[in-house]
Amino acid sequence: MQVIVMLSSEKRSLFRFLGIYLSSTFALFFLATFIFYSFQKHQIIDMQNNKLSIEAEHIVQDLRKLHENFGEPLLYPKHSAMDSAIYNLDKTYIFGTFKPQEIQWDKEYYREGNTLFYLRSVRPYYLGASFLLVSQTLNHKPLNALFKMLALFLLIAGAFFTLLGLFLGKLFIAPMKDSIQQMNKFIEDTTHELNTPISTILTNIELLDTIHDCKGKQEMRRIEIASKTLSRLYEDLTYLKLNHNYHREIVALNLSKLVEERLEFFSTLIESKKLKLVTNLNQNIILEIDKNDAIRLIDNVLSNAIKYNKKSGDLIVHIYQNSLEVKNSGLGIKKEEISLIQKRFKRANNSEGGFGIGLDIIGQVIDAYGFDFNITSNYNYYTEVTITWKD
What we know:
- By secondary structure, the chain is an alpha+beta fold.
- Among the domains are: 40-139; 250-391, 2-Layer Sandwich (Heat Shock Protein 90), CATH 3.30.565.
- 53% of the residues lie in helices and 18% in strands.
- It is built from 8 helices and 12 strands.
- Residues 344-348 and 350-355 have low confidence and may be disordered.
C-alpha cells in the first residue's frame, strides 16, 4: 500500500486555510452562542422575577383581606422559599422574614450577587404598609442546564466543522498537489534521463585526461566544470524526490578525509574562478553520519561558497572537533534575506545559476541529525556558514 506524504508547502497551505476557516467559524459560533445564552439567561431570570411578583401580589391580597376583616389570621409569607419585608411610607421596617441592610428604592427589580429582589408599592396603605420587598435566591439549575447544553452544542459543532474544514482544505490544496505531483514526475523523468549522459561525460573526461595528452585542456576543463555542476544538480534533485523514503546507513565517518576529497572534486571549479583556498582541517574528525548525507551537506556548502564568490576571492574551509566552517569573500547576503533563502526555490542572488534548493537540502540533513546551522554575512564582503554537532 502506498503511503501518501504531504509536503511541507501543502501542510502550510492546509493549516493556513484551516486556521482562517476555523477561527472565523468558531468566532461567529461563539458570538451567536453568547448572544443566545445572554438572551436565555435573561428569560430565566425574568421567569424567576415573575414568581417574585406573583408572591408579592398574594401578600398584598392577604394584607387587603386583613385590613378589611381585621382579626383574621395572616398567613405570612405564602412561599417558604421566598423572603419578604413590609415598610411604611417613611421606608421604615415594620415586619417580615428578613431585614436587608440596603435597599435600592428606585428600582422595581434588581439583583445583588445570587439574590433577586422585587420591590412593590402598596396602594392603598393597608395597615400602614406602603412598600413590600420580596426576595429569593437565584436558582442556578436552569442556567447550568443551559450552559451544559450550549457547551455540548459547541463541542459537536466544533467537531463537525473541523472535519468539514479538513475536507474543504483538501479540496482547496488539490490543484496545488496535482501540480506538485506533475512537477515531481517531470523531475524524476528528467533526472533519470540526465544520469547516464552525465556519468558518461565525466568518465570519458577522466580517461582522456589520464591516458591522452590531448590539446584543448582549457575546453576540457570547461566541459568538466559543466558536467560536475549537472552531476551535483542531479544528486540534489534525486534527494528531493526521495527524501521522505531515504534510507540512511549511519557509520563512523572520517569527516576530515571526506572534506579533502570533496575539495579535490571542486578543484576545477575553484581554479576556474581563481579562488585562493585556505584550509585548516583537523585530522581524523569522526562523525556518526550517513556518507551520502555528509557528501550532500559538504557539497552544497562548498558549491554555494564557490558560486557566490568574487573572482580571485578567498575560500576558507575549517574543520574542528565539533564544527565545519566555510567562509568566502563573496557577494554576501542581506540580513532580511538570510531566513528567506533557507526555503526551497528561494535565492538571494538571481544573477547566478541554480534552483535555490541547496540550503533547503542542507536544512533537511541538519534537521535529520539535530545539528546546528548558522549563517552570518556582511553584504558585499563575506558569508560564513557554520555547522555544529555534539560529540
